[in-house]
UniProtKB/TrEMBL annotation:
Domain MucB/RseB N-terminal: 38-187
Keyword list, A-Z: Periplasm, Signal
Keyword Lipid biosynthesis attributed: no
Protein species of origin: Sessilibacter corallicola
Pfam families: MucB_RseB (PF03888), MucB_RseB_C (PF17188)
Stretches assigned to the MucB/RseB C-terminal domain: 219-310
Location (main, coarse): periplasm
Cellular compartment(s): Periplasm
Protein name: MucB/RseB C-terminal domain-containing protein
Keyword presence, Oxidoreductase: no
Superkingdom, taxonomy of origin: Bacteria
The family this protein is said to belong to: Belongs to the RseB family.
Organism classification: Bacteria, Pseudomonadati, Pseudomonadota, Gammaproteobacteria, Cellvibrionales
Length: 316
């Protein structure tokens, strides 16, 4: 990723850190073109997130709290696994694992769960390379991703100049930072012999979370009549009592949970933790109430529209 300095503006760092929304009109954001350098960096970041193994410690800053977390991320033979351990509070760890070889790579256009869109990230975010800095004692490029509509948040990222891994990611609403993830130690792993066995077989007291597969959506009983443009179905889980459908636009992500209500009592309301919103609503189908929960990094107006767009599929 050398040679990007030609794209960097020669201005003071204090100005570079100012959030571009404050000085960029909405109409200009909607019509402006993203930097070629920023687009290239985001493509490299996507590869790094799914292909790079690393160890590190990052902080999660949200709602006045600062949580330090140790992470081990390994990608071996299509198996992607993370081990998260909070360094304050409870010492229990969470292991998150997904095995791409177990999921059929089907064409999502064959699914009937959402309106199909093929728009690129640039269609929904104005991507700008705005400067350089250091994070976790490593050189980084600073990139802003400004939303082109009201259905998603903006982001500021610090991308490692060597690996394109995001070493800092802040979620921005208007001029307010909702949360920030930032590495304070980051070590890429190039020797696959250093795989941590606990990621494959977690310890007894650790929580194991398995990723969903897209083809599971074929078993779902629900679909969305509307999603913000650019959001795609990325995984699904179907059980006897509940269903989960997860969507992403390449930056933001939200999940939709639908479950049958026991006792006919539903919950309604909202709660927020940093950039993550939990929005609770209900729908009534053939006189039966169902709980709908939207969880993700989206504004409340987006969650409300998604919740109202949940409709049942015709039973097969």
């Amino acid at each position: 990723m050398k040679g990007l300095n030609q794209y960097l503006p020669k201005i003071g760092w204090g100005i570079l850190l100012s959030w571009s929304v404050a000085v960029t009109a909405e109409a200009e954001i909607n019509t402006a073109s993203s930097d070629e350098a920023a687009l290239s960096l985001f493509q490299q970041m996507g590869q790094a997130l799914t292909q790079l193994s690393y160890n590190g410690i990052f902080t999660h800053e949200h709602s006045g709290n600062l949580d330090p977390i140790r992470i081990t991320h390994q990608v071996i033979n299509d198996v992607e696994a993370n081990r998260f351990k909070h360094l304050t509070g409870s010492a229990n760890a969470i292991v998150q694992r997904s095995d791409a070889s177990l999921c059929a790579r089907e064409d999502l256009s064959q699914q009937t769960l959402l309106p199909r869109t093929d728009d690129s990230l640039d269609s929904h975010y104005l991507l700008k390379l705005v400067g350089e800095d250091r994070v976790a004692d490593r050189s980084v490029y600073i990139v802003n991703a400004l939303p082109r509509d009201e259905f998603r948040y903006g982001y500021r990222l610090a991308l490692d100049t060597e690996t394109a891994m995001p070493l800092m990611m802040a979620t921005i609403s208007g001029n307010r930072m909702l949360e920030r993830f930032q590495f304070i130690d980051f070590q890429p792993v190039t020797n696959t012999a250093e795989v941590v066995d606990e990621l494959i077989e977690p310890k007894r007291d650790e929580v194991l979370l398995l990723g969903g597969c897209v083809q599971t959506a074929d078993l779902a009983h629900w679909r969305l009549g509307w999603v913000p443009s650019g959001f795609q179905l990325i995984s699904a889980k179907v059980t006897d009592s509940a269903e989960m459908l997860a969507f992403s636009d390449g930056m933001s992500r939200f999940s939709v949970f639908v479950s049958r209500v026991l006792g006919r009592k539903t919950l309604e309301g909202e709660a927020r933790r940093g950039g993550t919103l939990v929005y609770l609503d209900k729908i009534v189908i053939a006189g039966e109430p169902y709980q709908v929960s939207i969880v993700g990094e989206v504004p409340k107006t987006t969650a409300q529209k998604v919740a109202s767009a949940v409709i049942p599929l015709a039973r097969r």
